[in-house]
Amino acid sequence: MPDKTLVIACGALAREVLALIELNNWQHMELICLPADLHLRPDKIPDAVEAAVLDACDKYSRIFVAYADCGTGGLLAARCAALEVEMIKGPHCYSFFEGNEAFAARGEVTSFYLTDFLARQFEAFVIKPMGLDKHPELRDIYFGNYEKLVYLAQTEDEGLTRAAEAAAARLGLDFERRFTGYGDLVAALADVSSQVYK
Amino acid sequence: MSDEEDDLILDELDDGELVLQMHDDLYDGMADEIAEAVHILLKRKWTPYDVLTKALVEGMRIVGIDFRDGILFVPEVLLAAGAMKKGMHILKPLLIETGAPQLGKMVIGTVKGDIHDIGKNLVAMMMEGAGFEVVDLGINNPVEDYIEALKRENADILGMSALLTTTMPYMKTVIDTMVEQGIRDDYIVLVGGAPLNEEFGKAIGSDAYCRDAAVAVETAKEFMARKHNRAG
Ligand code: B12
């Protein structure tokens, strides 16, 4: 079996994983993605991940699942353990981008988060699935209890910052930008990468 | 929808057709049509309780099934719930007047750290529709708020909702505190929210995990019946 690592990632992490592969010159690491909209139906994630793992396991010496729990209530972790593959620690990407410890310590309750992915895909992954394109009157039913939109920025990108700011205005929320970089994703992937060559 | 259907005159439908039309209108989130149909049925001498259960609750039950099966998503459920709310708003004072059955009292809220409330609101509405009195504590509730409300309201049932894997363990904190205070067995504790499952519900010491609002209503009825049998 070739000494290669496969990363099976949520589509919302595609750019970020590719950026880290390039930055670190992890040539033995390949990426496939599952559709990002699975995060709206987390009950479907464990089966989708399992199918991808089973499909790839004889072609790679190591597989890493670039998902956090993502609302599966521990079921994805259980499935990964059964398949003997590792995954990212933490509840969701907002948490691991900031760093799971820092995110938990902040104890923020009334913030709605965007990542680079969501700032870029706000229309397709927030507005449309929540039906706000057709029913803008639902906005306050969804977001009435929120105070601010926090843009957790993975990169320095003026355009995305402006997009995130516009998203906040559209949702009627205050705006804050926090630069996080890739957070815990860096260490998680570096760990997988180094283990192959142990 | 075609023009023909747009022009549908609800008052010309017989009762059976009208109720089926209401199920459709609820499904499509058509609040004004629901309000109109509620008035028509009342004018035809339906009891408020029958309008509520046969037209509205039954319609929402169908919505719930299609949500569970992935045919409808959150916005459609919200619109349907909005339509039902409008119908219930008309019926509520009449239900009180006519002394519709009261099955028990529930205190419900989303746990501390979590402000997801769509599912919780739906459960509250369906419980009300089924004849429970519901005290809704809203979102982000610390244990003290739950316990204070249970005592103040002399409630039968505690309902807790959580949609985040980080907040679901807080349900155990609430139940453990109730145990410490020796009041756990005074209440029926029901828990729900998408990331939960039956095993979790058992592990934290709740009476039941409920997958959706319809199951919540059935479970609550069952436990209340058992409670009365024990008491009687
Ligand atoms: C809609 C939604 C939102 C809305 C919430 C609006 C609102 N006012 O509630 C918005 C867009 C604002 C939102 C925000 C966030 N969300 Co959100 N959200 C969802 C989504 C897509 C649907 C939840 C929902 O409302 N379903 C519809 C209702 C009808 O279903 P339900 O809640 O499951 O309730 C039913 C049953 O569970 C049961 N039930 C529910 N409660 C109770 C209680 C009792 C007592 C009983 C008996 C039964 C019961 O009966 C209900 C009716 O049938 C879920 C994914 C999913 N599919 O579950 C993510 C999800 C829960 N959210 C998630 C996240 C991460 C967030 C955010 C952090 C995202 C962000 N970008 O900032 C914030 C949360 C901030 C915070 N502090 O709470 C994650 C959780 C991940 C995790 N590890 O926990 C999920 C799983 C999506 C994901 N994979 O990323 N969210």
Describe the structure.
The complex is a heterodimer of chains A (198) and B (232). Chain A is α/β, with parallel strands linked by helices. Chain A has two domains: 5-93 and 182-194, 3-Layer(aba) Sandwich (Rossmann fold), CATH 3.40.50; 100-179, no CATH class. Helices cover 44% and strands 18% of the residues of chain A. Chain A has ten helices and seven strands. A four-stranded parallel β-sheet of chain A has the order 2-1-3-4, with helices on both faces. A three-stranded parallel β-sheet of chain A has the order 5-6-7. The longest helix of chain A is centred in the last third of the chain and has 14 residues, at 158-171. Chain A is globular, with a radius of gyration of 17 Å. Chain B has helices at residues 3-6, 15-27, 31-43, 48-68, 74-98, 118-129, 143-153, 170-180, 198-203, 213-231, and strands spanning 104-110, 132-136, 157-161, 188-192, 208-209. Chain B has a five-stranded parallel β-sheet, sandwiched between helices. In chain B, helix 2 packs antiparallel against helix 3 (31-43). Chain B is globular. The chains are: A alpha/beta (198), B alpha/beta (232). The interface between A and B is medium-sized, with 27 and 24 residues. The complex binds cobalamin (B12).
